[in-house]
Amino acid sequence: MQDETHHASYNPADPDPHSRDAQRFPRLTGEMAERIAVYGKAEHLPAGTALFERGQRGADFFFVLEGGIEIIDLDNDGLPRTVTTHTRHQFTGELDHFNQRMILVSGLTTVESRVIRITRENFRRLVSGEPDIGEIIMRAFILRRVNIIQQSIGGVVLIGPGHGADTLRLQRFLVRNGYPHRLIDSDLDPKAAGLLDTFEVQPHLFPVVVWPDHQMLMNPSTAELADSLGLTESLDPGHVHDVAVVGAGPAGLAAAVYAASEGLDTIVIEGMAPGGQAGTSSKIENYLGFPTGISGQALAGRAQIQAQKFGARLAISRNVVDLHCASQPYQLELDDGQRVTARAVVVATGARYRKLDVPNYDRYEGQGIHYAATPMEGKLCAGEEVIVVGGGNSAGQAAVFLSRIAAHVHMLVRGTGLAATMSDYLIRRIHQSPHITLHTETEIAGLEGGERLQHVTWFGRRDGQRETRAVANIFVMVGAEPNTDWLDGCLALDAKGFVITGIDSEGMPTSVPFATSKPGIFAVGDVRSGSVKRVASGVGEGSVVIQAVHKFLSPEAG
């Protein structure tokens, strides 16, 4: 798949966007320029006029009539460098124009110039009101973001041990949120020593995040990093949203796209990054409309942009810790103490993989035990033996992906086979691959190593035989535990903690399949009791639930 939206995945393996300069920096026609002018204000500016600066939120959109706008970031030495110059009938901006995040670059006029300045609100009107122009802008913005990531334009440097749990935590957050960065592995890269001397940083403070202007953070929490990067948006405690979607997996993003596109004031609250559990999948091949497959991150990237295009707001790196449901409108309490108020709530927090009951397990989480198999984790085990634990589709996708990188993949399942839990196309690939060995009725019995995992012992439940292998990376993808701790008794849950749906406040069956025991609160996707744990079903539920939200918000219209 080589169309422009493919680049929404922020995948470094994508084709070089430099080969698509005509789409990355398009020059619009005179007729389009006339239509654009309706949405903004013409300005005559002297050379050297600063139009926007790195770190600014909600920057205006500029269309060049005559003259030029130079786009500038800082190089590794903190000195300004030119990224590009927009000239006649070209425009500024990239994907951050669809949100309130801090922008990554600065812009100023190179010569005396005439421009059309368009505010953020009117920019949204332009994109929706002029669909042909909007398509060109969207394509350009996506390609520019890919280039920004590939070239680390406006990004940060992450210094730390490449296999370290905190380094991986921060790198995973940057990758999944599409933020430009460069990793310097302090265990392997001699550049790290020079940087340490320059900034007088001691190794015990690793990992360190360094900005272009040489500001730095020592091993920040994920929330601290998000705040410093400007990825979080300010929330108005007095604002009442029509609908708050909790969780930005496939179900939550689908709900956000349909809610925002139908005019509802929508906010999405997500603790890590768009995509949820599906966002960690290396490739999904049975999702409708993608015959060559699509990575979970690519799908999430597209959906996030789509939701923001329609006006949905995304509050990233904030977890909901409590739902105040005694009165309406409902209030969602976040882990930083802020509150979000909404007339309706869509619960789409999904599920997480279960941990294994094995000695030393907690010790090696993040230091050899992983819950995702993406190119980032793949680099950690190139040429080594790895273990995948689990028999579902996620485990199968991980095993197939890792078999192209690792020396060998050992797949451990408790059952007698895979037919009951995995799609047939994955089963066939696993059986046919010379690089994957399936161990049925097998469990992990021991984990050993120093700071990092080094040896794994497993045993066969049928014959009791034990085997120890030199394995430094395990990918655990077993079972599902619902992310419902934050509901705090508000909703009826089943015995496993999943949200019971299709009931009313009295616990009686209702015709609304996603309704919960509280009016105006709905549940979709993997968090819902009895749901089909598939991406396609989650997307379907997320899109359909908005009809019920509309009926709740405007019962007279139903």
UniProtKB/TrEMBL annotation:
Highest taxon of the lineage: Bacteria
Region (Disordered): 1-23
Single GO molecular function: oxidoreductase activity
Keywords: Flavoprotein, Oxidoreductase
SMART domains tied to this protein: cNMP
NAD in keyword set: no
Residue stretches making up the Cyclic nucleotide-binding domain: 24-144
Subcellular location field: Cytoplasm
Keyword Flavoprotein tagged: yes
One GO CC annotation: cytoplasm
Pfam short name (any one): cNMP_binding
Main location: cytoplasm
Protein name: FAD-binding protein
Organism for this UniProt entry: Dyella tabacisoli
